[in-house]
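Format notes (please read before filing issues)

Several people have asked whether sequences and structure tokens are stored in separate files. They are not. Every record keeps both together, in the order shown below: the sequence lines, then the token lines. Line labels are part of the format and must not be stripped during preprocessing.
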Amino acid sequence: MKKHLNIYFVLIVLSICFLISTTSCSSGEGKEVLSFFFDGVEDEIDDKTKDTLLTVKESTDNLQSTSFIEIINYHEAYTDHQCDNCHESNRSNQLLEPQPTLCYNCHDDFSTQYSFVHGPVASGYCTKCHHPHMSKNQKLLKRTGQAICLMCHERDDVSKNDIHLDIEDTDCTECHNPHGGEDKFLM
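Then the structure lines:
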């Protein structure tokens, strides 16, 4: 009888784990839920591959035929199928170097150009704002206009500043540099 209880207990625990892992909204949320119940839950994706839009195995031909996403802009290395410029091999998600070192092999190092540097630039996460392979937006941005800034900055906090009272739908980059500036407000 005790053996049957152990089997049922294991089945219940496995069922709960399965449900938790499949019903979470995101991989980060799934990790949080599992970490509540179990110690030692590892991240699904390491920092080197975090925030990638697509895996290397997915081709641009397949993407262009899908109707759910409109791709307009491609990263040049991705378009030229030069995956090994960034990845360990053509079939790997592992990056040659972590961000931003990898990005600075081809792109300007914004961290040295300004007296004050925007948070994602300072912490080295270009993919906080930019997709690494493709985007429907210019400069491979994840979002445009105020929406990209509001991914991190709270609208209520921005509105507390009197200068922002009448901005309505004005793009933040009309006044602020998204990478850095000569004062702490990135102007």
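For reference, the curators noted about this record: Confidence is low (pLDDT under 50) at residues 45-67. The chain has eight helices and four strands.
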